[in-house]
Every structure is written in C-alpha cells, then in structure tokens.
Design brief:
The chain contains 11 helices and no strands. The chain has helices spanning 2-13, 22-48, 60-75, 78-84, 94-115, 123-148, 160-164, 184-195, 202-237, 239-243, 245-304. α8 (184-195) runs antiparallel to α9. By secondary structure, the protein is mainly alpha-helical.
C-alpha cells in the first residue's frame, strides 16, 4: 500500500508535457501528406513534359541533378549507421535523422528521375533507375507500415500488451444493457476469439486488414441485431425495458462499435508488425543493389561513355 502510494505520488508529481501549439500539430499531422502530394505532382508534371523539356543526362542541369540525386541517396546511409553505432551520436538525434531519411528518400529519387528525364537509356542506366525505383517504392511501403505500428510517424512503437489492455470486456461500458442481454458478452467474446487468431503466413498478413474491415462490420451488425431482438422480446414483458429500450440499444451499439474497433486494431497490429519485420529484410538488399548498379552506371558513363 505504501509502495503504491509512493508510486501514485511520483506519477502525480511528474510534470506533464506542454501541449503543442496548433501550427505544430497541423505540421505534424499534414506535413508528410503534403510532401508526398507535392512529390506525386512533380512526377506527373515531369513525366508529361519529358518530350518538350531540353534536359540531358550527359550535360548541364540534367548532369547536375544526377550528381545531386546520387549524393542525397548516398546520404540515406547515415540514418541506419547513426541508429546502429552509438559512436555516431555526435551527428545528432536518431529521430531527426529518421525525418531526414524519409525526406531524402523522396527528393533524391525525384532528382534522379529528372536527371533521366523520365526515360530509359542504356542497359546500365536502366538497371540503376529500376533499382532506385524499387528502393523508393519499398521505402514508401515501409513508411506506411511504420506508421501502423507506432504512435504517429515519429512516436514510440506500440506494444501488443498496450493494445490488448484496451480490449478487456467490461459490463460497465455497456450502459446497463448487459444485465438485460445475457448473451451480449458471450457474443462479443466469441467474435474476439475469431478475430484475434494470429495470421498463419505473409499472405494472410497482407489480406488481414481488408478482411478485418468486412469481418468487423458484419460482426457489428450481427451482434446489434441480436441485441435488438432480445431487447424487443424483453420489452413486451417488462415496462422498464420498454421505457429504456432505445437508450439501451444505443449504448450497446456504441460499446460494440468501440470494442470491435479496438479488437481490429490489435489484430491488424500483429499483421503489420510481421510485415514490417519482413520489409526490413527486403529493403536493405534493394539498397545494396542500388549502390552496385549506380557504381556500375557511373563507371560505364565516365570510363566507357555508355
């Protein structure tokens, strides 16, 4: 008891983090989406104007964009190096480097695309361009998966125990409907057992979020329909239930909707976490392939003019 009181006192004395100003909240929420939208617009504009634009990879601005893009892509290595080796902490915060890594992962390939004028060239340049697109595409997939298993794009990673703590069934959340619908908690628990089965393979992980969307909606309709039927049946015999029938139904629907959302979040987290672990194993070889093809391309262009 004393220990609990001390811990509660420590928690109470712990200062709260200051609330972010509105412009920082807006930037945190929309900066990434705005950046991707601008990048997509630059790609569309660049591709549509490739025939009318006098941009050559061998000289002038086109050549400079190739150098800039290559250097930016090479700079991407600093993030995993900073993350792995503590001796490099003089380079700055890992979180800041993560932000730089994502920005350069878009700007660098974009510069190379303009360097190539959105066209294929020799075999070595095509191989380098395809490798770069593989890295950039897998990076976007990784960004999506990362956001699904973390608190925001730059927040800490979620834990399965943390999410499971939010799906514990409690009759207090039903607004009193549980005492009039004895099968309510049993129906919800049965749905939990069906949904919270770990995916068997990678394919199941990939289709799980989509399957959960339909499965949760179907489960919600099924449970609410059963609750409505039981309340209607009890309303005939009980004036109290008849009087509060609509309120009980709304409270139950709200409880079921929120609970199924939490359950879906837990099930999706397991799938996204496994996919993110697999993505790590694929993304790095793609980057090594990009470095190899880029080196071959630079040598072939400058030593053999091909």
């Amino acid at each position: 008891m004393v220990a609990n009181a001390k811990s509660m006192g420590t928690q109470a004395a712990r200062p709260r983090r200051p609330e972010l100003p509105w412009w920082r909240k807006l930037w945190k929420e929309w900066a990434g989406r705005l950046g991707l939208t601008l990048a997509a617009a630059a790609i569309i504009i660049g591709y549509m104007g490739r025939d009318s634009r006098r941009l050559f990879a061998e000289q002038g601005l086109g050549y400079a964009l190739g150098i800039v893009g290559s250097l930016l892509i090479l700079t991407l290595l600093l993030y995993p190096l900073r993350k792995r080796y503590k001796i490099l902490k003089i380079l700055g915060n890992v979180r800041n480097w993560f932000q730089v890594h994502m920005i350069l992962g878009v700007v660098g390939p974009l510069a190379v695309l303009y360097h190539a004028n959105f066209s294929l060239g020799s075999v070595n340049s095509t191989a380098a361009l395809v490798s770069m697109l593989l890295v950039a595409g897998s990076g976007l997939i990784g960004r999506f998966l990362y956001a699904k298993i973390h608190h925001g794009l730059y927040g800490r990673k979620k834990s399965l125990q943390e999410l499971l703590s939010g799906v514990k069934l409690s009759t207090a959340e039903t607004g009193g409907a549980a005492q009039f619908v004895p099968d309510l908690m049993k129906m919800v628990a049965e749905f939990d057992r069906q949904v919270l089965k770990p995916p068997k393979n990678i394919w199941h992980c990939m289709i799980l979020p989509l399957r959960l969307m339909f499965q949760t909606r179907a489960g919600y309709r099924r449970i609410v329909r059963a609750v409505r039927q039981q309340l209607d049946a009890q309303a005939v015999a009980s004036p109290v239930v008849a009087q509060h029938r609509d309120r009980l139904l709304k409270a139950t629907a709200r409880f079921v909707r929120e609970h199924l959302r939490r359950v879906r979040q837990v099930a999706a987290f397991v799938a996204y976490d496994r996919l993110f672990a697999l993505w790590h194993k694929v993304h790095l070889p793609f980057f090594y392939l990009l470095l190899l093809t880029a080196i071959v391309h630079v040598i072939a262009v400058h030593a053999y003019s091909i």
